[in-house]
Write a sequence for this structure.
């Protein structure tokens, strides 16, 4: 066979000589495409998969530690098949897609090549470093090195400069195949012990794939972009410690992180987002605005709510409790510590043990600090026989739970050891379930709207149907409940992503992820079926037929936890809460001590009207007082002097907009009332 057939994404078939490369085909199509092409995706045409193309065979000769996982060999145009170098000869009939910066997956190839460029630059400057691995990551790449001295910020600058030099030289990324013993010999001579280890462990074929970029030689499956010239928009970001293979106890390495995008504009936008995220960091703002703290003396992951944070929490909780009652929930409270036996019945003592604090012995009986509220609510449900007439029973609790999280993963308010869930459990009959899910979703939307989020992503997670043995509940239970979730989302016209196999082990679920002011995703609301607990606790209700039935059970949390949601709000608003949530809504600033009396009167009028006001009667210059109120992100500053005292006005300054001029006090109060009552964001 001297020719092969290449099927392009538009269905056109090209007949080309055996061994033609994707680069050559791109050139035939248009010089522009050839210039833009980064990498190719091929899928052997069905029935010929066995006659492996050399490109295909070379594409996956070993499990490279830093390459993308293999894809199935079907349609290249549908993102299936596998990626190969543009220069790889094709020697069988394939479907071919030539990927350019328009294809999202090509960016990972560019970033992987950037990691190689980094290693090449480091080797130029520090020839004695030992090499670890260097994969692409979400926003760029990293490479791990062992070197006696730490890399300094100045080193990073030099390395980045060297990377730019090597990029400008447009050095080809060349692929070579070596027999395994030769590969080992090469690295042994070069004294690259970590690489030897990788070749030993991961090269499963007799021939080993290498890529070279200048003096850098990597055991790597690839693919890579043809040469370094296309790596333009990158920046070295930081150095961090990392263990070889990520395992504590293994040799310590220095991991150099870089950001990498196609264009300088994309890189700049990313760097700007990073800056913004830093500016909004809730841990920093929590301290600056005196909202909360974590006290080493008390232990990590445990939150102290300071007066101002506590006030915001009270306002959040008041809103939530009112909504819960309005929406037909009952509010309950359950103990923080309950017999360990109960957690054995629920199964938590078994499958959730790693996340629980150890039991406490009381009068020779073990008690367990609660990691979840569900069993408590179940005991309330079970406290008497329920009739179908009472269903649905919706039990809600701002329930504080304690979970053991490793200290390494704790993070401000977002990942903690003690937190209060806005938890609820719904017990209902099968015919009620869709209305209940719909009500949960409606509640979730109310939360988003009230707290100022307009963008979100919804995921529907199902079980892994290939392993029904891992799940309680029958296939019918799963099918019914998943389709109930799906139908409800469809009826409400909510777009969602199906996540096969991502459900909780006890039932399918819907997750809402919020998108915040700077485009970050935050997992928030979750609505989950449970086929496990009702059976374990023998839950029942007496049906209309007089027989006993098992109710359906749904767990749902809207905020997730008060702590976490508060952290998200701080970052979303960069600490500048909308007026209805702000711990201090207006700061009264007398021009000088002479006007302190009028200032007092204004502050008192605000407080009488039910607002949270504060009088800054320090003997400071007005400018200093304004600056401080600005730093505390207080929504309104009311400046009062002689003119204002005489006319009964206040000069209004808004945190976000600056001076708004003088206004009669009564007008300001009625405006503020409107803003607070409408929870304007
Ligand atoms: Zn590599
Ligand atoms: Zn629960």
């Amino acid at each position: 066979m001297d020719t092969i057939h290449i099927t392009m994404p538009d269905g056109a078939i090209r007949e080309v000589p055996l061994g033609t490369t994707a680069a050559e085909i791109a050139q035939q199509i248009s010089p522009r495409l050839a210039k833009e092409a980064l990498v190719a995706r091929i899928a052997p045409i069905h029935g010929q998969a066995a006659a492996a193309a050399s490109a295909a065979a070379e594409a996956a000769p070993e499990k490279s530690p830093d390459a993308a996982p293999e894809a199935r060999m079907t349609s290249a145009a549908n993102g299936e098949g596998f990626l190969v170098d543009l220069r790889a000869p094709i020697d069988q009939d394939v479907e071919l897609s030539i990927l350019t910066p328009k294809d999202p997956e090509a960016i990972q190839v560019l970033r992987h090549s950037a990691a190689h460029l980094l290693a090449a630059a480091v080797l130029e400057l520090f020839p004695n470093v030992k090499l670890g691995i260097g994969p692409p990551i979400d926003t760029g790449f990293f490479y791990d090195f062992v070197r006696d001295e730490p890399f300094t910020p100045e080193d990073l600058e030099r390395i980045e400069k060297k990377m730019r030099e090597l990029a400008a030289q447009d050095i080809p990324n060349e692929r070579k195949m070596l027999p395994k013993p030769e590969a080992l010999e090469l690295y042994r001579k070069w004294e690259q012990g970590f690489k030897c280890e990788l070749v030993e462990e991961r090269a499963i074929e007799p021939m080993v794939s290498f890529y070279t970029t200048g003096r850098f030689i990597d055991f790597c499956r690839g693919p890579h972009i043809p040469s370094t010239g296309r790596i333009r928009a990158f920046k070295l970001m930081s150095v961090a410690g990392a263990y070889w293979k990520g395992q504590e106890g293994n040799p310590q390495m220095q991991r150099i992180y870089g950001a990498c995008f196609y264009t300088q504009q994309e890189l700049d936008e990313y760097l700007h987002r990073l800056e913004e995220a830093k500016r909004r960091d809730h841990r920093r703002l929590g301290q600056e605005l005196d909202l909360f703290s974590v006290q080493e003396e008390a232990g990590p992951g445990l939150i102290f709510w300071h007066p101002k944070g506590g006030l915001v929490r009270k306002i959040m909780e008041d809103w939530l409790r009112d909504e819960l009652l309005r929406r037909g929930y009952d509010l309950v409270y359950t103990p923080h510590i309950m017999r360990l036996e109960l957690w054995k019945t629920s199964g938590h003592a078994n499958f959730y043990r790693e996340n629980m604090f150890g039991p406490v012995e009381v009068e020779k009986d073990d008690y367990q600090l609660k990691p979840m509220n569900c069993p408590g609510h179940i005991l309330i449900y079970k406290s008497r026989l329920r009739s179908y007439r009472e269903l649905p029973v919706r039990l809600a609790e701002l329930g504080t739970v304690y979970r053991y999280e490793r200290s390494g993963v704790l993070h401000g308010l977002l990942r903690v050891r003690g937190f209060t869930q806005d938890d609820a459990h719904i017990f209902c009959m099968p015919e009620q379930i869709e209305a209940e899910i719909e009500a949960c979703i409606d509640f979730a939307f109310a939360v988003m709207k009230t707290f100022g989020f307009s963008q979100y992503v919804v995921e529907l997670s199902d079980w892994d149907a290939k392993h029904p043995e891992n799940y309680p509940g029958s296939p019918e239970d799963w099918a019914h409940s998943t389709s109930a979730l799906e139908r409800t989302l469809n009826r409400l016209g909510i777009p969602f992503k199906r996540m096969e196999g991502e459900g909780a082990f006890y039932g399918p679920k819907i997750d809402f992820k919020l998108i915040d002011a700077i485009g970050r995703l935050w997992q928030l609301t979750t609505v989950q079926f449970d086929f496990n607990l009702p059976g374990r606790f023998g839950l029942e209700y007496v049906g209309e037929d007089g027989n006993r039935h098992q109710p359906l059970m749904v767990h749902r949390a809207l905020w997730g936890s008060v702590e976490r949601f508060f952290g998200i709000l701080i970052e979303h608003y960069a600490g500048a809460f909308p007026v209805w949530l702000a711990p201090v809504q207006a700061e009264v600033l007398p021009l000088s001590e002479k006007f302190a009396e009028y200032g007092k009167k204004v502050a008192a009028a605000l407080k009488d009207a039910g607002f949270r006001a504060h009088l800054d009667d320090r003997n400071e210059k007005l400018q200093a007082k304004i600056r401080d109120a600005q730093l505390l992100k207080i929504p309104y500053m009311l400046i009062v002097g002689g003119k204002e005292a005489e006319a009964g006005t206040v000069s209004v300054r808004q945190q976000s907009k600056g001076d708004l001029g003088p206004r009669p006090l009564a007008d300001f109060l009625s405006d503020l009332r409107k803003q607070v009552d409408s929870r304007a964001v």
